[in-house]
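3.2 Worked example (two chains)
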Amino acid sequence: MIAAQELQTDFHYSHEADTQLSSDTDLEDPESRNAKPGKGKKGKKAPSEKVKGAGVRAQGRVNGHHQENGTENLSLFEIVKLGKSATQSVVDDWIESYKSERDMALLELINFFIQCSGCKGAVSSEMFRHMQNSEIIRKMTEEFDEDSGDYPLTMSGPVWKKFKWGFCEFIVVLVRQCQYSIIYDEYMMDTVISLLTGLSDSQVRAFRHTSTLAAMKLMTALVNVALNLSINMDNTQRQYEAERSKSLGKRANDRLELLLQKRKELQENQDEIENMMNAIFKGVFVHRYRDAIAEIRAICIEEIGVWMKMYSDAFLNDSYLKYVGWTMHDKQGEVRLKCLTALQGLYHNRELNTRLELFTSRFKDRIVSMALDKEYDVAVQAIKLLTLILQSSDEVLTAEDCESVYHLVYSAHRPIAMASGEFLYKKLFSHRGPEEDGLPRRGRQCRNANLIKTTVFFFLESELHEHGAYLVDSMWECGADLLKDWETMISLLLDETFPGEEALTDRQETALIEIMLCAVRQACECHPPIGRGTGKRVMTAKEKKTQLDDRTKITEIFAVALPLLLTKYSVDAEKVTNLLQLPQYFDLEIYTTGRLEKHLEALLRQIREVVEKHTDTDVLEACSMTFHALCNEEFTIFNRVDIARSQLLDEQVDKFHRLLEDFLQEGEEQDEDDAYQVSSTLKRITAFHNAHDLTKWDLFTSNYKLLNTGLQNGDMPEQIVIHALQCTHYVILWNLAKVSEGTSKKGDLVTLRKQMRAFCLMCQRYLSSLSTAVKEQAFTILCDALMIFSHQIVASGREVLEPLVFSPDSSLQSDLLNFILDHVFIDQDDDNSTGKPKITTHSHSLLMRCLSLQYYNDYGDIIKETMSKTRQIDKIQCAKTLILSLQQLFNEMLSELGCNFDRSSSSFCGIKELARRFSLTFGLDQLKTREAIAMLHKDGIEFAFKEPSPQGEGGPPLNLAFLDILSEFSSKLLRQDRKTVHMYLERFMTFQMSLQREDCWLPLISYRNSLQAGADDDTLSVISGVSRGSARSKKNKMASTGKRRLPEGVFESSCSSSDAGAWMTREQGVQQTPVMMSSPHMTSTVLRDAKKLRPDEGYVGVYTMSNDPQHTPLQQTTQVAWMVTQRQQEERANLQNAKMRSHMQHAIRRSAGLMEDDEEPIVEDVMMSSEQRLEDLNEGMDFDTMDIDLPPSKNRRERSELKPDYFDPASIMDDSNGLIILHFKDCN
C-alpha cells in the first residue's frame, strides 16, 4: 500500500517516476517559470506577467460575484466565512483566475489555508517566489497571533460552525470542478499537497489541525475522482470490446483508435490520482492518525472510513482496516467513536461482509468490550455495530459475547439500553422458521406466543425481576408490536394448554403479568421509567394518536379480562398487586360507550373480595388506588363506583370501632386473635385513607384513644401502634387540605391546631418506646410534620394558616437528635450479613452530623445531595459548614492523639481525604464558587493560628497542621485570589516563621506553595506548549525557540506593591510535530539517538534551560528583608529547576513530542502489555503495506484477491534502533 520511503515536507511530483517524491522542490520552480499552463512541467510567470495578471484580477469578485470599477476584493477566507455565496460560484471564479494568472490564483489559495488556520500573516508574492516551504511555514509561525488559543475550527458560535462546513465544501467542490484538467497540470495539486503536508507537520496546533482537515477532505474528493475514472474506464473498455467484436466490415477502426486513446488518457489520469493519494496518505494520514490531538486523530479515522465505503475495491482491505482497528484502543472517546461509526458504514452493506471477515475475527473482542465503554456515546455505537455484525452472520458472535450485551438492557442510560434491546430482539426474536407461516395471528398458538414466552424466560434468567419496566422500555422501539400483543398474553394466562404444550409455571406467570403491566404503562404514559429519562418531552401529533388508540385498545381488552384474571389469581398477592394497577390506564368512558357495565360490576366485586382476603400493604394500597382511579366525577360510572366504595369503607370502619371497643376493655389480658383483627382492619382503613377522605368517620378520636392507651399500659402490639400513628397522620393531612382549600367549617382551624399539637406530643412520647419500628415511625411522622407545618405553610397568600405554624422546642430537638445518634449512625448487629451501618431515614437539618468521615462511604450520595441543596441556598454558609466540620474532626483527632500526632496517621489522612472530596463538590466553575472558596480559606487560616503553640514561644501553633488539610482547596482558588489569600496568610505569620524549615513547619510551607503554584501562569497559546507570557520580539527570528515565564514570587508585604519574581527561560526545540511515536499496542521507553533521526520519522524536542535567570529589580526596605526575599527566590528557582528536570525526564521516558502540554497517550494502558499476547494475536499474519493501487477494469480481467495484509501491531516496531515508527514495505 505505502512505499517504504517517508514523505518529506517539500516535494514535487515527477511525471516520469512512479510514486517517489522529491524533497528539494518548493512552491516555485525557477527553471520552468515560462512553461505553459496545463499538463507538463510546472512553472511561474515573470514579474511583468504577474502585474498584468493583477490587472485582470483588479475587477475581482465580492462574495463570489464579479464586481466592476475596481471594487475592493474580499479574500477567499472572508467569502467562505460569510457563507453568503454559492460555493460552486466561488470556485468557478477562482478557476477563471487560475486560468488567466495561475501564480496569483495559487497564492490566493495558499493564503486561504493560512488564514483558515487563524494566522494573521500572509504569504507575499516575493515569499512565494524565493522561499522554501519550510521557510514560509516558519515565517507564518513567527507571525502567528498568540493572543488567543482559539482558531476558526475551534471557535464556538453559529458563524464558525458554518465556516467549518463551508471550508470542507470548498475543497470538495474545488477538486470536483478541476477534475477534468487542472488537477492534472502537475502544478496546482503539487503545490497544495506540498503546502498541506508541510503545515500538517507544524508545531502550531492550528496549522496542523486545519491542514489535516483540508488534506483529508482533499483525499476524499480525489477518491471520488478516482471512482469516476474507474467507472469511465470500465465503460470505455466495454465499448471497445463491443466495437472490436463486430465483423471486419462493420468495425469502425477510427472509433477503436479513439477508444484506445481515451482509455490510455484515463489510465494516465488514474496514475496521477494514485500519486496524489499516495502523497497525501503517506505525508499526512500515517502521521496524523496518531497525532497528540484527539480532534486530528478523529478527522483521519472519519475520512478513511469514507474512503473504504466510497471506493471499497481500492480501500476496503486489511492494509487500511488495520488503522481503524488499532485506533479503537484510543484513549479519547471521540476517536473511538469515529472508529465505530466508520465501521458501521461498512458492515451496513452486506456485500462487503466477506471482505471484513478477517478484521472481524481479529478485533471482535475489542468491539465487544467497547459495549462497556466509559463514554456512553461510544458504548451505544459499539452495540449498534455488534447488531450489524450479528445481522451479517449469526456465527461470528459467541454466546458469551451476546450475554455481555444482553444485561445492558437494564442500564440506566436509555440510549445504551435501547441499543441493547435492539440487539436482543435481533438475536432472539427476529428469526422466523418456515413452520411458523401457517400459525394464527392471535391466541395461544400464534407465533407471538412463543416470542412472549422467550421474553419471560429471558426476564427470569436475568434475575432482575424488579426491573421489568426497564426491559420493556429497552425493547419498545424495536419490539412494540410484540409487547402490545396483550390478547396473546391474556390467552397464555387464562386459556388451557393444547396437547403437547408445556404450561407456564407460577413464577413464569408472575413474570408475564409484570411484563404485561409494564407494557400497558409504557403505551399509556409514553415516557421511560424512573431514572431513565431527563423528563417528559412534548409528544408529536402522531404519538398522541397512537397513545389514544393504545389506551382504547387496552380498556376494551382488559375491561373484560381483568375480572377473570383477578378471579383466577385472587389469593396470590404479587399477581393481584400488578393486576389491580391496570385500571389506572383505562379510558373509563368506554365502560359506558362499549356497554361494559356488567364487567365493571364484576371488577368491583373482585376488588371487594381482595380487600377482605388480604392484609398485605401493597395489595391494599393497589385496591385503594384502583378505587381512586375509578371514582372520577367526570364519568357516568362515578355513582356506581362511589356507592361500592362507601359500602366497603362503612363496613371496615364499623368493624374497627366495634373491635376497638372490645379490645380496649380487655385491658392487660388482650387476646391475640382480637389484636390481629384490630390490626388488619386498621391496616385496611389506613391504606384507603392515604388516597380517600375518611374524615367524616372521625377516626382521630379512636386512634388517639388507642395510642394513649398504649402509652399508659406499655404493652400495645407494635403493628397496631404503627398503623394508628399513620392513620392519625392521614387524618391531620386531610383536615389541613380542607382548611387550605377553604371548604372547612368555622371552627375546623382551631380543632386542627389542637389535634396537630397533641399528635406531635404523642409522637414525641413514642420516641422513647421500646420498639424500634414504632420509634422509626414516630420519627418519620415528626419530620414530615415539622416540614409541613413550618413557616413555609403561610407562603403564597395563605396567611390564614399562620396559627398552624409549629416550631420544635428544645426538648423535641434533643429527642430527634438522640434518635439520629442512637438509630441512624450505628453498626449493624452481628447477625446481619451486610456489615454496613443502618439508616432508616435522614433529616435535612442535620448536615453537620451527616458529614462525619466515618459514614461518608456509606451515605456519600445522601451527603452530596444534601450539600448540593445547601450550596444552592447559600454558597458561603455551605463553605463555612464544610470547613467547620473539618475543624471539628481535627479537634477530635487532637483530643485522641495529642498535639504531637503523626501526619501520616490514618486519622489525619482520613480528614485530608474528606477535604479532597469536599473540594471536588465545588465543581469546575471557579467563578461561581469564588467567594465561598475565599471565605473557606479565610476561616481555615484563622483556625490554624487560633491556638498558641503548646511548646511555648517559637514553636508552631497548635492547629498549624490544619493548613495541610486546607491546601486541598487551593486548586479551587482563582489565580488573582491566591495572591489575596497569601497576603492574608502573611498577616498571621511572624518573621521567624518564614525562616523555619523543620518538619513541624511543613504544613505552612506546603500551604504557601499551593497558593503560589500557578499564581502567575499564563494561558497557553495556540502554539502548543509555548506560553504567551512574554511578547514575541520582532527581532527574534528563531522560530524554534519559545520562551515561557515561570511563576513569579508572590510574597507581597504591605509596604511593597511588587516583590522579586524569579524568571526562568525555557527553550524548546521546535523540530517536529508532537506525535505519538508509540504504536497503538505498545509503549516504548527507548529513545533513539538524536543524530540518527530522520526528519520524516519525528523525534523528541528537548527542553533546555538558561543558566542565567533574569531578576526583576527589588524594592528593598531593609537589608534583612532583602536577604529573606533573596532566599525565597533561590528556593523557588531550585524548586522550578527540579520540576523542569522531572518533567523533561518524564517526557523522554514517554518517547513522545514534548511540544504538546496536554499530550496524552492515544492508547489505553490496559491494551497490550504482554509480548506473548502480541505474538498470539499476530500469529500467521502479514502486515506489509502497499501503495494505493486502484483496481484495474473489471471487464478486462477478474479482480484477483488481494494478498491479506493483517493487523500486526508489532510490525510497526523498528528493531534496528529501538524507536517505534510506522514501517512500510511494498507488497508483492
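3.2.1 Second chain
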Amino acid sequence: MDMSMGGMDMGTNLFQSTNMAFARDYWYIIVGVLGLMAASRAVNFYKSEKRLRRRAANSVEYPTRPNTKFLEVWATLTAVAREASYPQLYSPSRWLSWLTPPPAGRIIVLLIYWAVITYMSTSDAIVGDAYFWERIGFRNAWVTVMQVPLLYLLASKCSILGIITGTSYERLNWLHRWVARTIFVTATIHGWHFYTEWVLADFVELELEMMPMVKYGLGAWGVLLWSLISSLGPLRRMAYEVFVIQHILTAVVFLWLVYEHVPSYAQYNVWLAIAALCFDRFCRTILLLWQNVKVFPNKAKCQGGQRIGHQAQVRAIGECITIITIKDVHFKWRAGQHLYLWMPRIGLAEAHPYTIACAHQVPGTCICNSIQLVVRKHNGFSRRLHDFAANAQAAGKKEKLTAFVSGPYGVPPRWDIYETLVLISASTGASFTLPILESVLNTKKTNCTKRIDFLLTAKQGEEIDFYVTRLHEFIDRANSIGIELLVHIAVTQGVSPRANSQNGTDVQALGSLSPTSTGSIQGKMINEITTEQPQVDLEKSAASSPRKRLSNASADSHVHHASVRPDVEAFIRGPVEATGGETSVVAISPNYFLRTAFSIRPVVTRTRSLLCAGTAMGAHALDALAQKVEGLSLESIADKYPNCYPENNPFDLYRAHLANVLGEITGVDTKIIYPSLSWTLSLDKGDLTLAAPALRVKGKKPDELAKEWAEKVSSRAAIIAALTFFVKGAPIVQSVVPMVRAFGSEYGCNKFLGLKDPRDPSKGKKRMIVEFSSPNIAKPFHAGHLRSTIIGGFLANLYEGAGWDVIRINYLGDWGKQYGLLALAFDRYGDEEALQKDPINHLFQLYVRINKEMSDEKETIEKRKQDGEDVAELEANSLDEQARRYFKSMTDRDAAAVAQWRRFRDLSIARYRETYARLNIRFDEYSGESQVTEEAMDRIGKIMEEKGICKEDKGAMIVDFQELVPGKEGKRLEKPIVRKRDGTALYLTRDISELLNRYKKYNFDQMIYVVASAQDLHLKQLFKIIELLGHKDIADRCQHVNFGLVLGMSTRKGTVKFLDDILRDVADKMHETMKKNDDKYSQVANPEATADTLGISSVMVQDMTGKRINNYTFNMDAMTSFEGDTGPYLQYAHARVCSIKRRAGLSDEDLASADLSLLTEPHAVNIVRLLAQWPDTFLNVLKTQEPTTVLTYLFRMTHALSSSYDHLQVVGSERELMKARMALYDAAHIVLANGMRLLGLSPVER
C-alpha cells in the first residue's frame, strides 16, 4: 500500500483534475446565480423608474400596474415566486421556536443547493473498486473546501455578494448558517471515508503519526462542530456577547486549521476566504473611524459635537422603553436601515443592532443630524441601559454618555413605488415602520403612493404613546399632500394611548373589520409640494404629558382604536382588494403574533327581519316597497340622494332605506352612509357591504355598537344587519322580477347619466363621439382591426345605454401615395368584373402584385447604382415615382384621378358594411384622411409656427416637446415630424386638423379614440399639441381607450388572416358541432345563419374575456367549445331559457299574474339577487370601460341558472308554481339578452 504523502493530497494524479473541475464548476454556478440576481435587480430598477415616470406624467390612473407584456410576465413570475416562498411551519411552543424550519422559499433554495452539492459529491465517485473509499473521501474534501469562501462571503456585513445583488447582510446570514452545516456534513463524509479505509487496513495510529495534516483536519472538524452547536438559539441567547467573541475567534482558527490541512494547490480557497474576511473588516473599520472620529469637531455649530464618538442622551419611558438620542451624526440613512451601537459605559465589549427610529434629522437638537433609537428592555445591555436612564431621571440628573455607531446597514426596498402601503408593527417594531411612513410623506420626489394603512399593536399603551403622537402629526401631513392615511391602534392590556386624548378617537373593531378606503387623492402631486413639515423629537414627545392635541381635528377621524388583538389577515385584505395597483405589506412583529392573529376569525351576530312588499309591475313594485319601508317614496329618495335612481336600480332603494335606518340608529349623516354602501363580488359575501370606519362613530366599543345596531335594525329593515347586508328574499323577488319584465330591453340602463342636467331633461343629452375600427381602403378587413371594432362597438352601445347622444365614426385610411400605386396596378392588371364582384379582395391582390414589382424594381436600381451605372432615368420612371406623381394629381384634385379613387373608396365601404352588419356594428359617418384638406393642414401649420410649437429641422417641421413641456413628460413625447422636407403632411398633422374640425362640427362633450396601445405615444402627442394650440378644453374632452394585440392571427412571412376567412372557418366549425345533435339541429330554422352567429359570438367573447390592455392568443378550439366560459356556452345558456319558455306555453298575461311569493327556494332568490345587480354592473362598466366586466356578470348569471334547473322545474310543476318560476326565468332571459346586446352579440333562441 502507498504510504507516501501523496495519499493525502486531495487526489493527485488519480482524482485531482476531476475534483478541481467540480470546484471550478461550483463557482461558475455561484457567479451565474449572482448574474441572475443582478439582472433581476436591474429589471426591478427599470420597473421602479418606469412607475415613477408614469406617475410624474400623471398619464395613467394606476402607474404601478405593469403596462407591457414583459412587465406583466415579470410581475406574474415575481408574485408566484413570492407566494411560493411564504408558507412556513411554526413550532407550537415559543420556547422551541429555534426549531422552526425556514419558510418554503428558503427551503427551495436549500434543496437546490443541496442537489448541486450532492451531485458534485457523488458524480462518478461511487465505483466499487480498490479506490472506493479514497475517491469519495477526496471528492468530498474538494466539495468541502470549495464552499469555504462562500461561507465567509455570506458572513460579511460589507459583502461583495450584497453589493452585486443589492441585498443586505442580514438577508444573507441565514444562508451562511446553512452553508456551514452543509460544510460540516461534507467534511464528515470526507473524514469518515478515509477513517474507514484506515480501519480496514489497520494503520490508524500510523496514519496519525505520519500525516500531521490529519490532526489539523480533525481540529478543523471539531471547531466547525463547536461553532454549529454554540450557534443554536438557546445557547446563543445565554450570553450573546460571549458568543460573538468566541464565534469570531473560532472563524479565524478554523481558517488556520483548514490552511494547514489542505495541500498547497487547494489553499487558494482559504486565501479567498481570508480576502473576504479582511475586506469586510477593513471596510467596517474605515466606516467606524469615519463616523466616530472628527479631527476638528465644530462644537459651536453642532450641540454635543465631540472628537471621539458621539454625545448620547438616554431617557426611560415607562417600565420598559428607553429612548436614545445620538447627537452630531454626519451621515445619511434610509428608512428601514439599522446601525450597531456601542456605549462603553453601559457595556464595555457590547455592540448591538438597533433600527433607526427616525427617517430624517430631528429638529431642536442641533443643525446636524441626530439619530434616535427606541430600545425595549429585555436582559443584559437593554436592561442596564433602562436602569441607568431611570436612575438618572429619579435623581434629577441629565446624564450624557459617549456612544459609538457603525452603519447604517441594510438595503431596504423603495417605498415610494407602491400605490398602497400596509405597515404592521407590534410595540417597538414601529421603529421600523414609522420611519417608512415618515419618508414617504416627506419626500420631495415623485411618489406613487396613494394610501397607507398603519397598524400598531402593543400590550401596554405606554409602549407606543410617543408613536401615536407622531402618527397624528403624519395624518395632517398626509392630508396636505393627498395621501390617504388610516391608523389602527390595538392595545390588548392596560390603557390605550387614546385615554390621554381630550377629544378621543374612533373606536373600530379591528378584530372583525378590514380597513376600507374612505377618501381619495386630492391636491397637488407629491413632487410639487415644497412646504416643510416639522419633525417630532421622540424624546420630547414622549416626555410631554398630557399629550398635546393637534389643532386639526381631521386626525381623529383617521385613527381607530381597539382593545382586542387585530385580525391581521383581514387588515391586509382590505387595502389589497381596494387598490388598483401594487401593494407592499411590511410586518414587523414576533412570529407568534402573526400566527395567532391570522388564526382569529371574529363573528358578528346577524339578525333577520321581515317585511312584505307589493307585487305591482316595474317601478310601481319598487314604489310599493318604498312606501312600506318607513314611508319612503321614489320621489323622496331622489330628492334626498341626487345620485340615486331607484326607478332604474333596485339596490339604490335598498341603499337609501339602509342609510335612513342606520342614520337614525347611529346618528351619522345619511349622506355619509349612502355612498359608503357598495355591492359585493359574490352572493356569499352578501348584497351590500358597509365599511364601518366610514361612519366615524365615537365613544363605544365596536362589539357594543354592532350588537346595539343589530337589535335596532332587526325589527325595521328589509335586510339582514351585520357588517355585510343580505337582502330579504320575498321583498326583492316580488319587486325586481316585475321590474325587469316591465322595463324589458331598457332594464339596467340609466338614461339620466347622459343628460346635461338630470333635473332638467329639456337641456338635452351630452354628445359622445366614438372613433373606432378605421381600416385601410382597398384592403380586406384584417383581423388586427377586430379588437378596435369590437371594443368600439361595445363602448358606443354602453354610452348610448347611459343616455348619451353617441356618434359612431369610422376614420378610414383612404389617402396617401399607396392609392397612386393601386391606381397604376388597376390600369395594368385590373378586371372590371372582378372589381364589381369582390372589390376589396381584387384591389388587395392588385396592390400585393404591384408592391412586389416595386420592391423588385428598387433592388434592381440599387444594384445598378452600386455597379456605377447611371440610374437617373430608371428612378424618374420607377413605379415609386409614378405613384408619387399620381398621388400628387389626386391632391391637386385631378378629376379623373379623384373619380377613380372615389370609386375604389365607395366599393370598399359597401363591402365593409356587410362585414360590420355581421358584427352588429353600424356607423353614423365614414370619415377619413381624405376629408382633411391641404389648406386646413397648411393653416394649422402656420398657427403652430406662429405659436412656436413647431420649428424647422433639416428641412422638415418638427415639434420639440422637450422645449415646450418641462420635465420628463417633454422628453417622453419625443420630437415628432409634422411635415416632411418635400412639404408632405404626416398623420399627426392630419389628426390635428381633423380633431379641431370635428369639435367645430359636432361640439362634442367627449370623444373616445379606440386605438391599439402601439399608438399611445401618437395620441399623447396629438392631445398635447391641441392643448399647446390653446384648446385645453378640447384636449380634456378626448380620451384614448387602448388595447393589446391579437396573437396567432398571422401566417408565416407576416401574411395575415382576413376576418371574413376567420369568421367563415369558425362558422363552419360551429356548423359541424351543431350537426352532431340531429334532434336539436332539426329544430333550427336556419342552421347556417345560427352557426354564423355562434361563430361570431365565439370570436367576440374570446376577445372580450380579458382586460383590454392584455394581449391574447387566438385559439379556435377553445373559443368554439361549449364547455367553459365561451361564446357558444353563453348563447347556449340564453337559448335554454328560451326553450323552457316555449315548452311552458305561457302567455305574457299568465306571467304578469304570477304569484311571486311562491319563489322561496334559495336558488330562486339568488337568481333575483343577481338580476338586481345588473344596474350596478352597468354603472361599474361605465367606470372601467371594460367589456370583461359585463362578461364576468353574464357568466355568473349563467352559472346560477345552470345550477337552478334541477331545483326549479317549470314544465310539469303545479300551474301557479310554473307561472312564478317561468316569470323568474323570463326576467333572467331579458337580462342575459340585454348584457349580450350591450357587448354586440346577437342572442339566439334555438
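3.3 Remarks
The chain has a mean pLDDT of 78.
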